Amino acid sequence: MRIISICPSNTELAVYLGLKEQLVALDDFSDWPLDLSHLPRLGPDLSINMDRLESYHPDLVLASLSVPGMEKNIEELEKRKIPHIVFNPQSFQDISNDLHTLSRLTGKQKEAEDVIKDFQATLQTYKEISDGIPNPPSIFFEWWPNPIFSPGQINWLTELSRLAGARNIFEDVELASVQTTWDDVLNRDPEYFCLCWVGVKQSRMKLSHVLKRERAQTLQAVQKNQLHLLEESLFCRPSPRLILGLQKLAYLLHPDIYPRPN
């Protein structure tokens, strides 16, 4: 099959299923694994060059709705009658379901079973540990700084937080992504403050972006020196690589309880 992925998390799903050799083009932000760097790029995941995509005559395009604005990609794929599938996972179970779906379309059922088995086993291990943490600290994930966006209740990062022995301060909001205000963040006063801006490399984020905000010094996360930069690629992409993010965050929060990440 000739497969095109137009979203980083979908590229990662394909690689986990052993479909690397069948990928013929990617979006600009798919940066893992490094040995895919030679593949043609079709533009940012919010602005795919559909004429160029069509020129590669794909048998299957892996599309996504994980970020607002991706709808226009789907509309154009449908308009051009290009074979595609759309993923929009919000939980670890959704990711497992997407692996199953993609494996059925590509003949990789055995690979999916193996990946999902390891994936679920790790989640279960971390659940058993997190269940024994009596007072999980509160945590805030800043997905975007202006306006401020953060994951809500219906999101893998809320699930990941619990498994890492913490509680997302916006887990009470029944949305996948919450647009909020700086005053609301101050009022909720998280014990840990994590920056992981969607589509932005860790090297381009600075703690000073937060520290210069009004009353930032009143946050207990700042007072306790618990303000952290996280890799966008390990926390903002719904693929099995979230396991690496879980392992890193759990050890960061509770180094005396969780194992050191590989």
Structural account:
By secondary structure, the protein is an alpha/beta fold. About 40% of the residues lie in helices and about 15% in strands. It has eleven helices and eleven strands. The protein has helices spanning about 10-15, 50-55, 70-80, 90-105, 110-130, 155-165, 180-190, 210, 220-225, 230-235, 240-255, and strands at about 5, 25, 60-65, 85, 140, 145, 150, 165-170, 175-180, 190-195, 225-230. The two termini are about 35 Å apart. Strand 3 (about 60-65), helix 3 and strand 4 (about 85) form a beta-alpha-beta unit.
Give the overall pLDDT as a whole number.
96
**What structural class do the secondary elements suggest?**
alpha/beta
* SSE arrangement, N to C: EHEHEHEHHEEEHEEHEHHEHH
Oligomer: single chain
Shape, principal axes of CA atoms = globular
Major sheet details: 4 strands, parallel
* Relative strand content: 15-25%
